[in-house]
Design a protein that fits this description.
Blueprint: H1 3-18, E1 31-40, E2 49-52, E3 58-68, E4 71-74, H2 84-87, E5 105-109, E6 113-116, E7 123-124, E8 129-132, E9 136-142, E10 159-169, E11 172-181, H3 200-203, E12 205-213, E13 220-225, E14 250-251, H4 264-273, H5 276-279, E15 280-285
Length: 287
């Protein structure tokens, strides 16, 4: 069975028992199912995406596949309207922990979807979501492992982002490829006297995406992903010592130890993937 199909089937079971439970707030307002779709940011056509980043590299992206989900919709206001302490609390995906203590999750799509971020064509999630008819102010995009894998597991092979392309600045040209996996390579080591490193589950969540809308039955949710944001500060000169394919294509690296450690371009991809506002746009489309 296709891996994403397995995800859809397993998550459909979760959705069937989870909707209406503690995960989704209920105030007596109407609750209904809805379709969700995800894709690349709007652009003319599809195919390779060309742009110049903030450090002067002309980038041509030839592949940018994204796998994300599940999705949660919250009544909590975006960051800035309240303190960090009020907004960020420990959460988990269908593992019994609460979501935002100062907010309330009123909608969810318990599935993952894979799409081509170079294309504006939106791909439907493989299961429908459920939502209570209340004002939504923020969305949460999670990058979790397949069902049955704990969100606290650090050793996974679930690829969140798969990219390939070329970059040029002056007489310097670099071909590159890489796969971003949200594993323990991104966990900072705890320093003496600190509260500890960020948990792996927290690393796999993007919260506080401004998404103000009032859902109406018959409408659907759209999530667009601007992959250009992930390359804003990417300086491809930093890949000089990275491993290469036989044709010279540089391989992006994420690793804490070993001969090759996380490079500057991969660090930019990670930071951009977790940028709530700019990388993601979430809107409700009425029927």
């Amino acid at each position: 069975m296709n891996p994403l199909r397995r995800v859809a089937v397993a998550l459909a079971v979760v959705a069937g028992v989870g909707v209406g439970a503690a995960c989704v707030g209920s105030t007596g307002s109407p609750r209904f199912a809805f379709e969700a779709r995800a894709g690349g940011a709007p652009r003319e056509g599809s195919g390779p995406l060309r742009f110049t980043n903030e450090v002067g590299w002309d980038v041509t992206l030839e592949r940018a596949d994204v796998t994300l989900g599940p999705i949660y919709l919250n009544v909590v206001a975006p960051l800035g309207a309240q303190s960090l302490r009020e907004l960020f609390v420990k959460t988990a995906w269908a593992h019994g922990e609460s979501h935002l203590s100062s907010g309330r999750v009123v909608g969810e799509v318990l599935a993952q979807v894979r799409f081509d971020a170079l294309s504006p064509s939106l791909v439907p999630f493989p299961v429908v979501g459920a939502i209570t008819q209340e004002q939504v102010r923020t969305a949460e995009v999670w990058f979790y492992p397949e069902p049955g894998v704990s969100p606290d597991t650090t050793k996974i092979d679930t690829v969140a982002l798969d990219v390939a392309g070329a970059a040029r600045r002056g007489d310097r040209a670099v071909r590159f490829r890489g796969k971003l996996i949200l594993d323990d390579a991104w966990q900072r080591s705890a320093s003496s006297g600190s509260r500890g490193a960020q948990s792996i589950a927290e690393i796999r969540r993007v919260r506080g995406i401004a998404s103000s809308f009032y859902p109406r039955e018959g409408g659907h949710l759209e999530i667009t992903f601007d992959v250009k944001r992930l390359f804003r500060g990417a300086d491809f000169d930093n890949l000089a010592s990275n491993p290469s394919d036989k044709d010279g294509t540089k391989i992006l690296v994420q690793s804490k130890t070993g001969k090759f450690t996380t490079d500057q371009v991969m660090q930019n991809l990670y930071q951009g993937l977790r940028e709530a506002n700019g990388t993601y746009a979430v809107r409700w489309v009425d029927p």
